[in-house]
Amino acid sequence: MPVLVPTTLAETLGALADDPSATLLAGGTDSMVEYNEGRDRPAGTVIALSRVADLRTWRHDPVAGTLRVGGGVTWTELMAEPPAALVPALAEAARTVGSPQIRNAGTLGGNLATCSPAGDGLPVLSALGATVHLASVTGVRTLPVDDFMVGVKQTALQPGELISSITIPVVDGWQGYAKVGVRNAMVIAIAGACVVLDRSTRAVGIALGSVGPTVLRAPDAEAVVASSIDWATLRVPADAMSAVSDLVSAAARPITDHRSTAEYRRHAVGVLVRRLLRRASTVGARS
Length: 287
Ligand SMILES: Cc1cc2nc3c(=O)[nH]c(=O)nc-3n(C[C@H](O)[C@H](O)[C@H](O)COP(=O)(O)OP(=O)(O)OC[C@H]3O[C@@H](n4cnc5c(N)ncnc54)[C@H](O)[C@@H]3O)c2cc1C
Known about the structure:
This protein has helices at residues 9-18, 31-36, 75-79, 83-86, 88-96, 100-105, 108-114, 121-128, 145-148, 219-228, 238-251, 262-284; strands spanning 3-4, 23-25, 46-48, 58-61, 66-70, 131-136, 139-144, 149-151, 154-155, 162-169, 173-180, 191-198, 203-209, 216-217. By secondary structure, the chain is of the alpha+beta class. The radius of gyration is 19 Å and the shape is globular.
């Protein structure tokens, strides 16, 4: 098959415009598994993204309070400073992805484009209210990440477009990501959750992974946390904590599959959010 190896974004978008059915290949850690198993083999041209410098960079804008991450930035790069200090929940999610080899090759853009319900980056981007920039030869359109993720492995990406970057708010407060799987490492999440507590806007974000067709928010639980939390210590009272856990479980729409039962997933995601809020209060009490 023809493989193009562009080095600039303009060159990449031109190639994609010439052949909108071309297959994009970043780290290959999702796609190569599919190809090796005989699914979704590229029918035509493959466009390799790993040498496109514009996709491999990140930029912190302290005035806007954002971190803009190129679609081709790897998990390993997200685990390093300064991105890890700016968006610690994303670094936490990155540390749970596969093995060092997978994290060296796999990218945030690839995780988003695959849009697996178990993608570890996705709950973090949702809870933080990230936006996704989709570039084509005609320009760039920007979508909230919750609108970008449409369903199980379905996104709002159109032919001729690629994920050029993701803008992530840098939050003053606390944020954390946790997941459960059948073992501690090299594991796809059975349930995952991200909690974001924004002290400056007093906003709460709770996003759930692996318990629905795509990432789900838990707005009722967010409202209970926002109305009961002590913003000085980040402590949620015990009665509110139980209600939050129940509301998170109620927001889940899990299925039973080869990894877990729906019942366990529903229970686990409530426990994860409770644990994350407890962790927030231990840090909040010291800050
Ligand atoms: C052993 C193993 C363990 C894994 N463990 C985890 C895990 O714990 N958690 C987890 O979330 N994932 C895991 N994964 C899945 C995978 O590593 C991640 O989803 C990774 O982020 C995919 O990125 P990639 O660059 O390799 O994508 P690729 O495989 O290159 O591409 C995936 C899809 O995204 C498209 N694409 C890539 N980049 C772009 C772009 N910029 N714009 C538009 N479309 C694009 C491709 O066309 C393809 O359809 C694992 C995979 C393996 C093989």
